[in-house]
């Protein structure tokens, strides 16, 4: 949820923005965020709906385009909305205030070529909006497993968070049929070398609520092979990559990767890069990027991307595809490799 520190309403004669401050609307008056989103998305793509303050009776609706906000305010302001229990909505344009930037913030790239990290590829619009909706419906019809801050589903093999590996003796079955179109697209992707020979047998689906990210880590070398595919659905985020100096800090050998976030001075020697992951994009980690760089999703509700504030949606869902390794890893990065220590 957002808070009032991010927003301030403008008068109806103020400059149009893609963000709307909507009063008489919110959980405190019996309306869920999903119900509100379903009404406002009729006027265009929304990047999120957030509580405007602690009252729960006012929300911010953030559109991707100013024109969508203009259409919505003309249709709904001062009029009873039958889809929201007949409530009369009072709407003004809103300016989003960026949260203070950390002193050590890193510039966010939009393209993989800007990162300068060998082995990272980002494919925009890897799937269509319709395919995205079908995938979300499919996983929402399956049972979720609740972790402390997010929900997950595992297919093929269950990922064991305590040991950061899988039990190869306990296969859950084949990957579900609803991901077959994704696997087909991967195998026919002209930008991936030997794409037709890629075999993926493990899938983890993660659902991230607003503000929840992912601690820095390298997927265990001895557990998974050299290609990791991650499809982003529903909401945007940024992903940061860190290359630590040899021997400085190797969380792949530690059980608690949150140590780095809690004690940043413990690992001060590293190089950082960051990239924006829009919905429906596919990220491929291979080679150096997969074996030597930690990847990390900051625990933010709002991301600054080249002076633009990107609000994370009410949820972000990722599909991470991997191939379980049958033998020891023999990569070219032994300092990060548990098989070669």
From TrEMBL:
<dbReference type="GO" id="GO:0003723">
    <property type="term" value="F:RNA binding"/>
</dbReference>
<dbReference type="InterPro" id="IPR005123">
    <property type="entry name" value="Oxoglu/Fe-dep_dioxygenase_dom"/>
</dbReference>
<protein>
    <submittedName>
        <fullName>Uncharacterized protein</fullName>
    </submittedName>
</protein>
<feature type="domain" description="RRM">
    <location>
        <begin position="18"/>
        <end position="96"/>
    </location>
</feature>
<dbReference type="InterPro" id="IPR032857">
    <property type="entry name" value="ALKBH4"/>
</dbReference>
<dbReference type="InterPro" id="IPR000504">
    <property type="entry name" value="RRM_dom"/>
</dbReference>
<dbReference type="InterPro" id="IPR035979">
    <property type="entry name" value="RBD_domain_sf"/>
</dbReference>
<dbReference type="InterPro" id="IPR012677">
    <property type="entry name" value="Nucleotide-bd_a/b_plait_sf"/>
</dbReference>
<dbReference type="GO" id="GO:0032451">
    <property type="term" value="F:demethylase activity"/>
</dbReference>
<dbReference type="GO" id="GO:0070988">
    <property type="term" value="P:demethylation"/>
</dbReference>
<dbReference type="Pfam" id="PF13532">
    <property type="entry name" value="2OG-FeII_Oxy_2"/>
</dbReference>
<feature type="domain" description="Fe2OG dioxygenase">
    <location>
        <begin position="199"/>
        <end position="325"/>
    </location>
</feature>
<dbReference type="InterPro" id="IPR027450">
    <property type="entry name" value="AlkB-like"/>
</dbReference>
<dbReference type="GO" id="GO:0016491">
    <property type="term" value="F:oxidoreductase activity"/>
</dbReference>
<keyword id="KW-0694">RNA-binding</keyword>
<comment type="similarity">
    <text>Belongs to the alkB family.</text>
</comment>
<dbReference type="InterPro" id="IPR037151">
    <property type="entry name" value="AlkB-like_sf"/>
</dbReference>
